[in-house]
Amino acid sequence: MATTPAPAESKSPPPQARSVLRDIAFLRLWAGTTASGLATWALPFVLGLAVLQRELGAAGLGLVLAARTAGFLAAVAVGGVLADRHSRRAVVLWSALAAAAAAPLLAAGLGRSLLLMTVAAALAGAGQGACRPAFQALTAEVVDAGRRQQANAATTLAVRASTLAGPALTALLAAFTDVATLLLGIGLLWLVAALLPGRGATAVAPDDAPRPRRASLRAEFVDGIREARRHPWFLAGLGALTAVIALGYSATSVALPLISRDRYATEWVLAAAMTAYTVGALGGALVTARLRPRSQGWAAFAGLAAYGFAPLSLMFPVHPAVVIGAYAVAGIGIELFNVPWFTATQREVAPDKLARVSSLDFLVSYGLAPVGLALIAPAIDAFGVTPVLGACAAACFLVPAAAALAPTARHFGRPPAPRDTH
């Protein structure tokens, strides 16, 4: 008797991964990270308002901001070690609470005690520095590997949007309240960053389990440096990022206000260029949420090198639209680098050393930025603005190109596995 053959089992495509924006655990972390980013951005802006209202002098502003930077640099390495040694959620909690506690101290010292404001700013910087590597490592715990690039892009998008809308919102609030109240508002943002994120997925050993003897903080940080040295793409990328920040970003930060005033005789070019940079970064974050280039590392280094168009546009008497367009391209490029860079670090670095390697990233790139700012102005006085901008633009183009030649730089680590065509 003939039988009807059973129909061939159809191969259905694998279900799409759930969007990270529908994950409650990530949304809590995203909101906390965004609050910390907004608070970090807002502090120097609000202190600038205090200078305008003559509650703080220009020299005092410089001292307070320098103290915040010193606090950041002192705490970021320690925060990375603690986040690998203990619960990353706990490190986020206590570091953000420290930054929140600094806000009322800043408000209390405003117009009364510069010493109190300086100590409070150092505490705020320490809280900021300690929580940065912990947030990076906590993202790797909360979000699975396949969705981390989308998660990092969403976080960057929120921070950039806050930077774009923040000045207008802060100026509007300043019309109805005083600087001390705005400083307390920054403290509330840090409370959100401290309390909102949930616990990561890392298992915690029971209280009665034997605990291994811990090495010193210095020894554990050195162990993190050893882990970073295992990844040539990371060292090359860190060198390229540091060069672009310390030379390119520092040069444009000093030269753009001068050129806007002297060449174009208006502050409008300064404001428009900085806005274009932020809008470009927003676009770059949107693109990287979905973009998966075959050679991810090379694409990221090309994006980083695009910052060179910013100092290049300031070298010649071009139409202001050229300067604004160059800054938009630079903004797009910086996020084409940042998002894959964070994602690759979370993927390639050993999970128990991730916070320490992230802290090394922040320590080197942020730590050398003030050095660049301090040297650019004397260099402009000695050699002129055009040669300095030309040298910095060349560095922005050439250093990432050289970094792209490092082993494993093409893919930021292991090349992607070949797709199964059967």
Element layout with pairings:
Elements: H1 24-52, H2 58-85, H3 88-109, H4 114-142, H5 148-174, H6 179-195, H7 217-229, H8 232-262, H9 268-288, H10 296-305, H11 309-313, H12 320-348, H13 354-367, H14 369-383, H15 385-403
Structure, described:
The relative contact order is 0.13. This protein has 422 residues and is mainly α. The chain has helices at 24-52, 58-85, 88-109, 114-142, 148-174, 179-195, 217-229, 232-262, 268-288, 296-305, 309-313, 320-348, 354-367, 369-383, 385-403. The protein contains 15 helices and no strands. The longest helix is centred in the middle third of the chain and has 31 residues, at 232-262.
Identify the notable features of this structure and list them briefly:
disordered N terminus; globular; mainly alpha; 422 residues
* Strand segment count: 0
How helical, in percent, are the residues? over 70%
Radius of gyration: 23 Å
- Spans with pLDDT under 50 lasting ≥5 residues? 1-15, 203-211
Average pLDDT over all residues: 85
- Class from helix and strand fractions: mainly alpha
The proportion of strand residues reads: under 5%
Largest sheet: none
- Distance, first to last CA: 35 Å
Element-level helix/strand string: HHHHHHHHHHHHHHH
Assign an overall shape: globular
Per DSSP, the total helix count is 15
